[in-house]
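Could you help me review a protein record that somebody else here produced? This is what I was given.
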Amino acid sequence: MINEGGYISRKQCKSCHIMKYLYCFGKKADGFAKTRSICKMCKMKQNADYESREGRTRDSKLERKRRYQCERRTAERKLPHTLTAEQDAQLNNVCILSGATSNLQLEHFIPLSWGVAGTTFENCYYIEERLNYSKGNRNPFEWIETRFQDEKNRFYGYLVPMLAERNGMRVDEFISYVNNLYSKAL
């Protein structure tokens, strides 16, 4: 897809057939728009399938460091840290908003700094580092309004319903719940 400036801004993944921004694709010098033909998310799924067939594990120093830092911050605030290794594996190490598979951080939808929700399966997902830094401890519903439309679509179409279900709430209840927590955290 060509944007207003005449530059290619998006293309369709050959695997999942979804139109995505170019940053969702790995770089390839001789590829269309200098990117690979399949998105990072599909590539990650292919790699995971290969690793499972080969019996490999995906535990790295960086992942262990991320878990330690998260555990430390949660403990400092005396918040629950109930996210198990099995639940962490279910989070898929893919950014839900961009599809990226690298430079990820465990994101707390309700920030730890609000002092009410910890590192739990009901509150966590993986997000690209740059997105996590831009969100900070802001209200996620206010923050997402500053983002690209594709990210907003994934936020409201996938992330919010998923977290609402994990918390045993309807989507409207979950939105109200988070907004009430934010107003009390101010």
